[in-house]
């Protein structure tokens, strides 16, 4: 009998799956997209008599999903971030606080407005350092908070600090769509929440995003910014026309609308999202259990108030020499397991450090550098079975242990 590679002995085990293969678009989404293609009205404002656009329906449904009063569907998560900053009237030269541990579109959105990112440190729990934030709050009037890789900080304390300082909060929820803190959906704590539907996020339209808020004037500005051409009455999750009268002549058009084709793909996925979150977390817990107790490896303990979405998992090789970490990466890669490392001096794929973005000034942050140097990151696509997840954790455990033991 031929032995399957995924059930071979431990020394020979190798993972043969893909870390970038997503599940197919639901059949209902494919059918809805084909209908849009057949009638040809892809532009969100190109509607037939009596027709409500797919994009407008999606906005209404996403607002209901998050509990927000208003929602704007846009071309990307990065566009949503920039739109939120503009809606809050961030100006060139303004300082905007943000995480030192994040991805390039976050400081990029700030710098694109001519504003200046001010980086805040990260803790061993991979969340923003609230003590460092408290010290830096007087420098800015806006915080762009990144829930990086799905880790949510103590939002009650953060909002208390920011409210006392008069700092408005934009939440970057690219990795926390569907997550909650103490029962409040991610994106609903601050002034505005921004989400992504890029392929590797929790809903897949290739590119796309949302912006949500309860503030009617911010919502009206966001609709105008997105490129409504005064067709704001075709939105279902927007404020009334009297609000647009206050902003329509003074808000620039920075076009970044979502189209009906992507909205058609997303609407069925939104209905499936709660079940998908359960599936991600099931996979996360299998990998987490398999890695627990690995010598030299620190797991990130998830706090009780956080309902996370485990579409990726992180662990720390704290205080390891960079060459030892590189050896772990190479050994795991040789067995089919792709780990990303945020400790490299040069950006690779999506990994970046705050000092990688040379368009943004930064001071040395030794405590943060120690954390960044140790972060390992791995995607958990839903195309992985639970057996796959167990296999992957065995491989990582074996290779980390081997390098750790040899180092003494």
UniProtKB/TrEMBL annotation:
Pfam family, one: DegT_DnrJ_EryC1
Positions of post-translational N6-(pyridoxal phosphate)lysine modification: 201
InterPro entries recorded: DegT/StrS_aminotransferase, PyrdxlP-dep_Trfase, PyrdxlP-dep_Trfase_major, PyrdxlP-dep_Trfase_small
Keywords: Aminotransferase, Pyridoxal phosphate, Transferase
Active site (UniProt): 201
GO biological process: polysaccharide biosynthetic process
MF annotations from Gene Ontology: pyridoxal phosphate binding; transaminase activity
Family per similarity comment: Belongs to the DegT/DnrJ/EryC1 family.
Protein's name according to its UniProt entry: Aminotransferase
Organism: Alloyangia mangrovi
